[in-house]
Design goal:
Length: 286
């Protein structure tokens, strides 16, 4: 099942995709948020479709695509989770997951325009598989317990400003991760029954030229290990977003230029969906 949110920012309408139709979920929920995701969203939606309770949303194809989840309480990220990316960053593969945070207000629609931060010379792209939490996860006993706490998966672009992240960071990465619009998410939330999270192709392109091309099979720490590991140190709430790391092929490698105004980035994950962002210069009036 695929869930989405359509409409102007701050006024998105929750929908479920049914073939080529977008069915309005508002008879069930006001939004795709933690409460909805914790309350058997697939079962309730399936029953509502069968009962004819969800009307088709008129003009859905003309509406902006928002992030498929309402603002999460937390965005927790895993760094250097692909060995080749760690190598191109000048690091050895980490023995335990590297964790950093993005602020929830970085989560935007998959095709929204992104402003390059003021003074930035090293804005970078990172295609990533995102995990959406569906049930509170705290002190899970083992990675095998993780699946019961996952509502679904999303495509995400973990945008980064490398000077802020690495050179003026004070040792913490989040300065380079939290600029406005630095987490395009979507287009859909895809439920776990539809995909194998460890067998998905990830790709990115800049101005149509290929950059990243890898598989989630190459993760150092798989999804179930990540969710279990995080639960030992923090509580993941329904609706929270976990980003699982990016493969090789980013500008930080030195093989490609960083992003500049006018650049267009396309990213896609097999079965999860594609997104596109145009990058524009920062202006004082923004």
């Amino acid at each position: 099942m695929k869930f989405a949110r359509l409409g102007d920012a701050g006024h998105e309408i929750p929908v479920v995709l049914d073939g080529d139709r977008h069915l309005d979920l508002r008879p069930l929920t006001s939004d795709i948020d933690g409460d909805f995701l914790a309350g058997d969203p697939v079962g309730r939606t399936t029953a509502a479709i069968a009962a004819g309770e969800l009307p088709e949303l008129d003009g859905a194809g003309d509406l902006r695509i928002g992030a498929p989840i309402a603002r999460p309480s937390a965005v927790v990220c895993i760094g250097m989770n692909y060995a080749a990316h760690a190598a191109e960053s000048g690091s050895a593969p980490p023995p335990v997951p590297v964790v950093f945070l993005k602020t929830p207000n970085t989560v935007v629609g998959p095709n929204d325009t992104v402003t390059i931060p003021r003074g930035s010379e090293k804005t970078d792209w990172e295609v990533e598989l995102g995990v959406v939490i569906g049930r509170r996860a705290s002190y899970l006993d083992s990675p095998a317990d993780a699946a019961a706490h996952i509502a679904g998966y999303v495509t995400a672009n973990d945008l980064s400003e490398r000077t802020f992240q690495l050179e003026v960071s004070g040792g913490q990465w989040s300065k380079g991760k939290c600029a406005p619009g630095f987490n395009p998410t979507g287009p859909w939330l895809v439920t776990p029954d539809e995909v194998d999270p460890q067998a998905l192709q990830l790709r990115s392109f800049v101005n149509g030229e290929p950059r990243q091309d890898s598989s989630t099979a190459d993760m150092i720490f798989p999804v179930d290990h990540i969710v279990w590991h995080l639960s030992q140190f923090l509580t993941l709430e329904p609706g929270d977003l976990v980003l699982t790391g990016t493969p090789q092929g980013v500008a930080l490698s030195g093989r490609f230029p960083y992003l500049a105004p006018g650049d267009v980035v396309d990213i896609e994950i097999e079965g999860i969906g594609a997104q596109r962002q145009e990058f524009v210069a920062w202006e004082a009036s923004r």
